[in-house]
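Lab channel / #folding
Pinned by the channel admin:
"Please post every new chain as: sequence first, then the structure tokens as a reply. Keep commentary short and put observations after the output so the thread stays searchable."

First post following the new format, from NK:
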Amino acid sequence: MTSRKVVELFYDVVSPYTWLGFEVMCRYRTVWNIDLKLRPAFLSGVMQGSGNKPPAVVPNKFKYMIHDLSHLKEYFDVSLNFPSDPFHVMFEKGSLSAMRFITAVQESEKGGDKYVEQVSRELWRRIWSEDKDITEPASLCEAALKAGLSDSEIKEILELSKSKEVKDKLKSNTQAALDYGAFGFPLLVCHVNGKQESFFGSDRFELMAHCIGEKWLGPQPEKSAAKL
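Reply from TO:
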């Protein structure tokens, strides 16, 4: 029997391209022979640590990004819409409190990552679909409620998100991404038969599938399978 492959997904909800990659990998976790490990990290820390600049700060890249994402949201079937003031959202407000909150969800969740996935998705929806805040405690609580967590669980997670334990865990995940060579997100690190392969971006799935011995069925594998 072929052993399952491990795929680590490093992500931050401030990145729209990473949302696309996140949804694709969540869809493929039941299609490919993989164990998907969600690794919430801090994109700003990766940018600083690698000396990279976000595409949105380069005017021509930002123009292309708007055009590109308008096509990709349909191709990936993700309800992505630009916030009214993307620079304020991405660079002034940022995502540190949101990523600490997601890390706290992960630290408190036992036996899987159901709520990590759901809370991450709800925070992406807030920032990249509904043009809502993801920095204030009330915003985090609202996202967690929609994800299915109870009021008491959310209160505990909110407190945990302020702890040194969670802050250090987020720093550790961010440093792990840098150690893998990250310069942006999404970063996918595949572990197969003792070998490691890293892939950056939401447009490398076909190559990744080839390298790990799986079949790429497009960004919506359930639709592709229905046609076979």
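NK: DSSP finds eleven helices and four strands in the chain.
TO: also worth noting, The radius of gyration is 17 Å.
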